[in-house]
Amino acid sequence: MSIPANLKYTDSHEWARPEADGTVTVGITHHAQDLLGDLVFVENPVLGRKLKKGEECGVVESVKAASDIYAPISGEVVAVNGDLETAPEKINEGAYGAWMFRLKPSNPAELAALLDAAGYQKLVEAEAH
Amino acid sequence: MLKQTPLNAAHRALHAKLVDFGGWEMPLHYGSQIEEHHRVRKDAGMFDVSHMLAVDVDGEGGRNFLRQLLANNVDRLQVPGKALYSCMLNDTGGILDDLIVYFLDSRRFRVVVNAATAENDLKWMSSRKARAAAVTITPRRDLAMLAIQGPKARTKVWQALPQSKPATEALGSFFAAEWGAFFFGRTGYTGEDGFEIMLPAAEAPGLWQALLDAGVGPAGLGARDTLRLEAGMNLYGQDMDDTVTPLWCGLKWTVDLESPRDFIGKSALLAAPPRAQMLGLVLQERGVLRSHQEVETRNGRGEITSGSFSPTLDSSIALARLPVSVQTAESVKVKIRDKWLTARTVKYPFVRNGRSLIAGLPSSTR
To answer: What is the interface pTM, i.e. ipTM, of the complex?
Structure first.
């Protein structure tokens, strides 16, 4: 599975996508869902919550394990994908389509500091060894 | 270096996710453990369980040896082929292992033990064998083991191995038969019908392929765990170990305290009343129950020993060690991360032969 070039990535395996309206959409990567296996539970941050970069803000759980979700950048939660509550398997079916939540960045410069696709690819390869 | 079963190459060919399971390289899943789970409940799936060890107990003194070694009563085995589930205890009543013993004929028993405990089991068995006893204990590392489980498992086994049908079609539940160098037990760890087949290691890849061709789906340890949890079967090292007795982890039914027979650990069981009991839990809110989560009841605290997501019930379920005064259908709280969520105590098994046994919780339609 190729890593989309239009997204930014964290070393904790979230992706972040800048939108035209200035918000940033967040999800977990294909690699992350592959490590976890079949997902059965997603907990998103509540609407309006103000997050700091790197803050624990949600959970994804597979049959086998639970994994925390961290805010890739600082900002306020302006949308959450409620569909995942009843259909967490959508992340397994397409990790880059099944977004988790959307942030209104409080410090847009943080986005530039995230990994690009090539940097994330290196991280995934390093973890495999 | 991880130990490999004779089917390792077959797992790789199917792109299994291989993991370290107690020193063995074993398949966790072949893509989706939930799909594998449903396949076993509705059709037929197969597990490579060659990491488990068959131990042959042969000789005139075999029955007497097992009489004192096992907490369940081996004298319940009078008809050749009959199988019995039992715990093997230490002197203080702690569980060293849980196992199945098959009675083959007056001079031959076969015991199947867990992989992680196999070496210690062998040492224990040898140390408890009287020097003069006419018993030989032989670990059968030359055998592979396959569990084929599900409502269509036996039919598909006979499709793959038509010549075995006459020797195995009359087998009742918890009976076994030998067919040449193959051993068929109508036993399993999923709550479904099926066979566990032991066979010479070199023949395992051929049987695996024949079963694939007959439409049996490969299933990994991930599905095996959710299936056995739904079936309410304990997992050694998780729901029980040498610090608990069978009386407080739901295995009282496997302990024979009625007959005058003495066995290792019996006096300890009689001297100490159970300090806990095992009950099932069904989570009433969104989330996933996991082992070691704390449980708060009206009568004190307990702990989850096994918890997961139940694909059949589309809910989270668990086995929990709780104070002896807790009843079924009570509401309890479970600590998941920093929150206390509500769960209901239930009698288990949760699922048997593809169907939910929990009132108000139908089988998933997936």
So the answer is: 0.90
